[in-house]
Amino acid sequence: MLKDFEKKELSNIITRYRPDLTKELLQKNSFIYDLIEEKLEKKQLKEFDYEVLERAWLDVNLEKPIPNKTSELDLIIEKYYPKLKEEFEGLAMYSNTLISIGEIKAVEEVYDKYSYFSDNFSYSIKFEEALKKEVEAYLEEEGYI
After folding, report:
1. Which of 3, 10, 50, 70 could form a disulfide with 98 if both were Cys (CB 3.0 to 4.6 A apart)?
2. Residue-number span of the structural domain to which 91 is assigned
3. Whole-prediction pTM
């Protein structure tokens, strides 16, 4: 339903709100595009300008929020390394650091182990400790701590 140029426009809209979804949006058959198309079909819209695509994204994100790994990573850094967070934000590199941490295989394994993308997920002490361990390893490896 969505043409390639509309997907590109939609990708730009979504990454403005959620830079952590960039990698997912690079896939032409991303589930995110399917969700947006479903929303547009329900509204029986045929033409999609910027405002229509943005509204559809906002509606989808409100109805079925896509889990945001970077928010948990942000909580870990804020809780255990608050001065580092201030320093990163001052350098305008904080969101890129969160995205980089989220792409580490060991971090993805923590999310998989604790069923982050399932209905059974609950934020537990064990999940936080496992995530903290991987965040700390990344920060040490990069020379931040």
Report:
1. 70
2. 69-141
3. 0.58
